[in-house]
Prior knowledge:
The structure is a homotrimer of 672-residue chains. With 672 residues, chain A is of the alpha/beta class. The longest helix of chain A has 27 residues.
Amino acid sequence: MDGKKILFGAAYYPEYMPYERLDEDMAMMKAAGMNVVRIAESTWSTLEPKEGVFDFSFIDRVCDKAEQEGVSVIIGTPTYAVPAWLVKKEPEIMVLTKAGRAPYGHRQLMDFMHPAFRFHAERVIRRLAEHTAGKKAVIGFQIDNETKYYDNMSEQVQELFVEYLKERFGSTERLNKAFGLAYWSNSIADWEAFPSMRGCVHAGLSGEFDAFRRHLAADYLKWQADIIQEYRREDQFITHNFDFQWKKFGADIAQDGYSYGVQPDMNHYEAAGAVTLAGTDIYHPTQDELTGAEIGFGGDSIRSLKEEPYLVLECQAQAFKYWTPYPGQLRLHAYSHLASGAAGMLYWNWHSIHNGYETYWKGLLSHDLRTNPAYEEACRFGQEWKKLGAETLTIRKQNKIALVVDNRCLTAFRWFPIDKDLSYNDVVRWVYDSLYELNLECDVVDVEALKELGALREKYDMIVTPALYSAEDELIEKLRNFVKDGGVLFSTFKSFVCDRQLSVYPDVQPHGLTECFGISYNQFSEPGTTTVQGQPVRYFMELLHTEGAECLAPYEHKYWGRYAAVTSHSYGKGKAWYMGCYTEKELLKQYLLQAAEAAGIQKAEAEWPVIVRSGINPKGEKVHYLLHYASEEGSFVCPYQRVTDVLTGMEYREGEIIPLRDWDAFVLVETC
Amino acid sequence: MDGKKILFGAAYYPEYMPYERLDEDMAMMKAAGMNVVRIAESTWSTLEPKEGVFDFSFIDRVCDKAEQEGVSVIIGTPTYAVPAWLVKKEPEIMVLTKAGRAPYGHRQLMDFMHPAFRFHAERVIRRLAEHTAGKKAVIGFQIDNETKYYDNMSEQVQELFVEYLKERFGSTERLNKAFGLAYWSNSIADWEAFPSMRGCVHAGLSGEFDAFRRHLAADYLKWQADIIQEYRREDQFITHNFDFQWKKFGADIAQDGYSYGVQPDMNHYEAAGAVTLAGTDIYHPTQDELTGAEIGFGGDSIRSLKEEPYLVLECQAQAFKYWTPYPGQLRLHAYSHLASGAAGMLYWNWHSIHNGYETYWKGLLSHDLRTNPAYEEACRFGQEWKKLGAETLTIRKQNKIALVVDNRCLTAFRWFPIDKDLSYNDVVRWVYDSLYELNLECDVVDVEALKELGALREKYDMIVTPALYSAEDELIEKLRNFVKDGGVLFSTFKSFVCDRQLSVYPDVQPHGLTECFGISYNQFSEPGTTTVQGQPVRYFMELLHTEGAECLAPYEHKYWGRYAAVTSHSYGKGKAWYMGCYTEKELLKQYLLQAAEAAGIQKAEAEWPVIVRSGINPKGEKVHYLLHYASEEGSFVCPYQRVTDVLTGMEYREGEIIPLRDWDAFVLVETC
Amino acid sequence: MDGKKILFGAAYYPEYMPYERLDEDMAMMKAAGMNVVRIAESTWSTLEPKEGVFDFSFIDRVCDKAEQEGVSVIIGTPTYAVPAWLVKKEPEIMVLTKAGRAPYGHRQLMDFMHPAFRFHAERVIRRLAEHTAGKKAVIGFQIDNETKYYDNMSEQVQELFVEYLKERFGSTERLNKAFGLAYWSNSIADWEAFPSMRGCVHAGLSGEFDAFRRHLAADYLKWQADIIQEYRREDQFITHNFDFQWKKFGADIAQDGYSYGVQPDMNHYEAAGAVTLAGTDIYHPTQDELTGAEIGFGGDSIRSLKEEPYLVLECQAQAFKYWTPYPGQLRLHAYSHLASGAAGMLYWNWHSIHNGYETYWKGLLSHDLRTNPAYEEACRFGQEWKKLGAETLTIRKQNKIALVVDNRCLTAFRWFPIDKDLSYNDVVRWVYDSLYELNLECDVVDVEALKELGALREKYDMIVTPALYSAEDELIEKLRNFVKDGGVLFSTFKSFVCDRQLSVYPDVQPHGLTECFGISYNQFSEPGTTTVQGQPVRYFMELLHTEGAECLAPYEHKYWGRYAAVTSHSYGKGKAWYMGCYTEKELLKQYLLQAAEAAGIQKAEAEWPVIVRSGINPKGEKVHYLLHYASEEGSFVCPYQRVTDVLTGMEYREGEIIPLRDWDAFVLVETC
């Protein structure tokens, strides 16, 4: 990445092509303004068709052609799909999960801890890195792909987990106490008696096991990165394709869904240490359901990992029947990625594949490999990007709001769901989407990253915790001090309930923050017919006693009318909001806005479907991406003294009305 | 139990406490009028942390403190959750089910038939009994907990089952014939060919296997009771916590549901022989759905086991979000248990547990371990009970209606469901709840208990059989004679269809009772749009020919209009009703009432939500519990010449209106 | 089959009877006009109670009595349910599927490829055939029953599959290419590396495996037929009971459902070579949902296998609650089978079974084994048939429409569903039922049968392809030529997408037929709010560009309005329709009718619920079955110059109104 151009391209699999098309593909890519391809990930059986026999010819062909055309190449290590010969030789490298030994066929089902897997993976990675690091076109490496721990329950993982617990807790007494193992006779007096995790029903211990396995997955990426380090040039980056928890449309067997929320099986923040450039894939709902929120959430999450521009390694031009973009949507998406701070964007993938599991996970080209409306729209903004370049389009942000997320909370709710229809990520997205729709930009910050910050007030004015169920005293104190120091804390129900071992605090809720919020509660309920401000409460409600707080809204109910639903409270120099129940987004937004105002945070006047996302480009200009997520026309009153839409050259002054077409996008650069 | 005081207390787990609180807990219990704790069940890993190493210190501490405070203790044998060391040593004690060997972690997943389990269980029971039987505070023992057969499919169980069949049927010819095994080539000519029950698709044989395994579970309890017998004092009872089939709210993963109907995996009547005092747990639906019917059904079932006051070993003060009692509901529940004839009631449990599987199966205390609305309400009726005592509050009944239930019918419908949305227990509850709501009190009688009675007329005036699908000729004859002798029989569809091997009788239905009911049928149907008295028929309808019976209501349908839906018939000195289809409760109630009137059974004028349940207390007084299951106010016209509400001292005379607050309770004692 | 009488009878299981009833049963059968029983299939444990010990006594008894009564007997080989002794001896004959080794108990779970199974099966078949072939009453043999491949995944099957692939593709390079195995590293360089099919995620390879296993199942039937050939008399037929994909009502556990569409686990056309007479079972939905379409679809499918009259070996008189026929429905059904070209019909089964899995899969007799409305109705048409005979009632057809079906398309959509609520068979039935309701009679033709035809124009005027997803170039060319030659082709969405390895064609869709249809597309979509002619589009829509075709209807949608939904196009001497989306049947019918008219196909004026199905009887008369699928009365204007209803002797002339009672049936024979 030379920082001059926005990376624009696609994952490219010449080895999947039904016939030779390299020249034609490159020509079509160039015509679309594309300048990068990602290759080789998941091609192990092509790279090493037999054990120890390597064939780099398809890589050479692509790299040579790319170099000739001035196209850059990202080399993926091929480890996330193993060749059949390896499994014939070493059947135990297939992962052993709760469901038994995985059968060969699908990707990502290996036991990446297995020595035999590591031996063979290391060899192919070394050979590939050695072969490609010197190539001029190669600008970086992607290690593995969408790595997770694949519910690895091998004996080795079990043993390592026990070692980890020994180290962490020292004695079985402390272990028993920390997780409350006396319950149902699960306590042990010798480490030898520690049972297989397969049948574990202790949420806390199970959550610890999940966290431990996320460590293993992060370590595995680190191991790959260390190998690549030995070969890569200084100008070559190492990246990884971090993905999000998936949500199915509930329609098809394999071919549906989109990027929804926090990834349970990998901790992005922990793993980000292995890479020099954060990368991600972001998929989204069907054309009729587009809001841009996934691009916002994913971008705000991945950008916050390193606080640097990041690469969208996979996004989607066309797919199964649920993603056939309307005119303008692809271009709008592309600008939305830049608006979140992306340094570039690659489609997954260049061409629709003609067979295999993802036949209908379509590419920019349809199966006919010819031009089509999606490709034509890509050509349009590809050319725009080429012209304007990264100096204008890439932005950095200094958001004053942090939305705090946490894997451990996510997995805790698998054991103790708030409601079967309300997962952790539902709450996270309820809050994130409300901020997004209000045009209140935020960082999405892993709780571990928050802990590593010094004084929170130096960085943020407002911290939002959706269902931060598990929080240790140290973090709670930090948040308390944040409010004391003038910060605004906004927390929802199910925050600050238990420690990191998921033991509920044996004192008044919300633990350690009753004075800060000015409330307490020791009861909660299914809402039944309860309303707040006339709106139905759904899924869950805590019965809040105000103890100093202002009751912003009480519950409306014969018996629960005496309790508060939403409160705010001044504490030290700051203020703390508490939202005790789940409602439609409208109510939540009202209180988030109130809190943001108290935190002194400015926002654009517009609300969704008009989205404004801002930052500073390398030239130091203030850039406002104006995005219109609607199939109808709309308008936006220019709030800036003077801006130029660099896409059209049009100039707008404060108060002027900017007419918005359906699925429209503007890049407004402040000019005074 | 000295018979003077109502037992009131809680399950108590000091070993689960996050910090030492024994003194504080006992003080809070005493303040609430509590006088008993149940301890030690499920604490094996605490009692015997390593093989053969015993530690009774937590038991001693509780017992000592309890004795000092005048609180009684029930000691539970700890066998329903096994320690990890035992499973490490003897992995095969984990039960082998249809799903394979159960993994360690959850409770109640052991193979209680396994010799190694028995060896270790016996040792810890003996040591515990020996250690505690002499303690003054200890008033009784609970053997195991909610015991069932856990779908045990071990080789040993298979072999014992074959032995049992050999003994029962003698020859394979008779076995083949009894169960119709020629079907699909399942007949055998040698016992050696008897196949594993794992793949059995013969409903009859499978039902026999289930019944056999219920025997094993009952025998296992007997085995525990025999051990305790060697140690207990004469004044110490042996009890067991019988539970009911569970119904999920369909909301959460583990933390929801309530006591619904007949327990499929244990026969209460069969197992009751092992204990000297019947015990049970009764859970109920969410605060908005409370009717009291579960307390009625559970109480009428457990009381009928021994026809003695029984102990509610577990009931619930607070729980997951579905049980956050409204003011008055806890107290109403408490009086409802007494109204069914309970001798006492313990909460499960004293305090909410801070970790483990049942974190949100809350106790009387919330996780903050302080006072709260539930605890405060318990204090109120705890003090009331203490003042009034068992002499006033405990009642005995002589109900004239028997509702007949049967495990074999229950499991038969798993193979041949009436409808996917209508289980056996749905029919049982449909009928029971109708009686309950009409204030027609009944005994809930196991079919085996009914068989052991002499002449049924001596005890009952009316017998009700909901879906008594499987009935042998002897029982059918007994029922026929009951009607001949002047009794009233009320049966629903799917009664008297097959014998105990689930072979459908090859003659006219209802088998052996066509003359008694004055009907026959050989067709049944999905109701479609059929109605009866303008009400929709749901799930199932039999096309009844009247043959002497009065057609109380025909079906309303183009083709089925020629058939009767509900009939009654005089037979001998009695009368028999037949309800050929499922309808809303209103229609059923109309006919039940008719039948009860014919049987000369008196009932209170009131209907649900006003519930009246009556009996005679040890002082010989007539006691009428008046319970109001409504969130609105109501009233009750006093039908008794003169009664005193012993809770308030208020006196009421016949015809006076007793005003009822929401969720109100009265204990009316007749005073002339 | 002497061709003189319609076969009318039942499956008969004296060995399941609760008591001896042979004489009584035969008398009742005769009274009903029945003349055939099918016996012995699934009776292995009765025939050979111990290894090598045979007992034919129950067969002899039935055959002797049948001969005496002039009733014919079909002998079924007993192999579809194995005896317990065999599984004790050879546990590995239970089939190994994806779910593991099947447990003993259920039928059809054996590994019919296993040598031990074959050894024992051969012995019992030979002994049975030898014993029965000489009996006068025996008119034919049924080999096995409803044979499928039972998801057989044994090592042997895996090895045979690899052999088959080797032979078919020669090299691993060609294999990799054909199925695109490079995807996710599944390509192999040695045949030894070929992985177990258990985890295969390549739709194409998996589809090939399914097809291969259908071959094995067909070969197995061939193997049985070859054995029977050695014993049977020339006048004895060999048949098999082909069944259809099942659709559950979604109500009960085991006892619900009906014959719905193409059988995925057996290719009827391939297997039909083994038999001399095609046989089938056809079950149908509940009495309120009867349309006759299942009898039409099943009949048109099975008749087309050999283009000869076929035998309905199983149909249903009564069943679980979902099939309690209204007066007239049984008779209507019976005539409907004849109207499709059946040569006879047997009920499954004679009597309701009193135990076992199918207790409520009732027979003509209810469990009481006496007369009942179903039996009485059977008596009526049994006598009618006896009187009229096959010479009058059996018909042959020469349909001019072919509806093309294909197993490979069916299984392909399991991997790439059109929508979770729209299966292949849903599309097939959508089209078939539309034709049926329009009274446009068709053959249902397996794609392999179509390929074997010479010029399609010689036989058909119109070919309809519902979702013919997978089609090789040769077939496509054949269809193209069919249109060129003057035929009418009517195809729906998802036709002509990929080759037989399920590789999508890398050129413009519909592959090879863009000129024929005059359209192309490379995008498709979830319909959202799209409508066509004001009717909602459901599940799926292709965005069609017209390239010469007439747009019969465009999509109505803001963005998709530019695309065609339905098109027609003249090509050569013929014409081609393309239906790009799924709609309610009304729209489809409109275009089918248009196409049929263009093809010069005549139809009766009536539409469902009045059904007319026609043919020529052995006497050369034109016969029109007139069937009325309604519970209300209706009428039909006679379109024939002069016909006689042979059931009543009534004569009708052109233009006369024939009044139709509810569920009425007529057999109109043209008399000039």
